[in-house]
User: Fold this.
Amino acid sequence: MNGCDALAEAILTSSDRQYTVPGYPIMELGARTRAEMVINEKTALEYALGDSISKRRAAVIIKNVGLNACADPLLQATAQGLISGVVIIAGDDPDAHGSQTAQDSRYYGELAELPVIEPDETSCYSGLEAAFQASEQFSRVAILRLTPQILEAEVKHNPVSRHDLAGRISPRTWTMNGRVTAAEELYRTMFAWSDASALNRWQGGSLGAGAAPGDSKVVTVHPLPLQAAEMQPVHEYGRTFVRDHQGLQPPVAQKRPQAMEDRGFYRTFCRECPFKSVLTILKDQDMHMICDAGCSVLGMTPSYEIGVASYGMGASIAVAARSTRVALIGDYALLHSGINALVDVYEKNLPLLCIVMKNNCTAMTGKQPAYDPVPYLAWAKPVICRADDEEQLLRVICRPEKPVTVIVEGECPEGANHETVEY
Assistant:
């Protein structure tokens, strides 16, 4: 069988959900797995992160340039964490036969500190399952890098059993610094995982990465195992990633993640914030939500603590559509990059309550003016209400059976700042 056949079978065994944005060289792989087509790659990854929160494994099948659209939630997930495995199956086109660029996806492993696996002819099945397990072990997205050479090659039919592990979402009590510290410590342990991986084969002589020829084979291409440090020559498809990363060392051990209590304070909404009523109603009804970037992220801190996770600007809508079904987002973040996901949610009639806090500014960064989202959302038939109209808010904030958009209008208090509460 060829690599595409094997990988399609492996994906259907190891994952519960599959999403795709088609393109060369992974278009056929998406079709064979009957992957759900999504409006763009960022939304596909955000859906997958929502699945992860709901304890479902998800595969995102995209081409190399599509990975660029995933950059924000991809890096955010490393710090925020996840529960069930999320694997991006990235189709690289080193010779630019069907792509705008000859981009090499392995560099995202270095940028986002992710495990990257590039299977050879013997490890299409085991490599895919190992990618899901690594995602769960290190609580971040993993990348399975594919090139036309492996998709078209004759490979071994050696299926492996699925074995789910469990990752973790960063505790709400950690500061942002604490989340990054904890993620860096997990990255440090990833080097030992790569060194010990049975996917790699060491026989001396030349070194081949993935499907490239070599006496020895390296499949865990990031982080690169120590055994590959001085092997020459190196054969690989794409840029000289393996050659340039020989001898890469793990980061130094990290201190204990900082908690808000260690820091001595937490931040919450401004004392006179008009949107507190929204958070109070959600908390009273025990409606947990996905937070976006901006003020909505404060729903994760006391005294509300109803925010489950936040994966960056515009991400709350798609993540929530596959998990909590409640998204809290600001007007700027919605138009920044959330509106594509909202279109996809409405097209698929997914149950989601999307609450947009409309304050006409970017409150966290100096109150620069924001566009009014209302003219751009007529197709969604949003419910528009004032933040001080508690009676209407109680009617519209409820568990959804279909997509519902609620725009809550309020004005940020002049000269106010987020309240700092000491422990």
In short: The chain has two domains: 3-244, 264-422. The two ends are 62 Å apart (CA to CA).
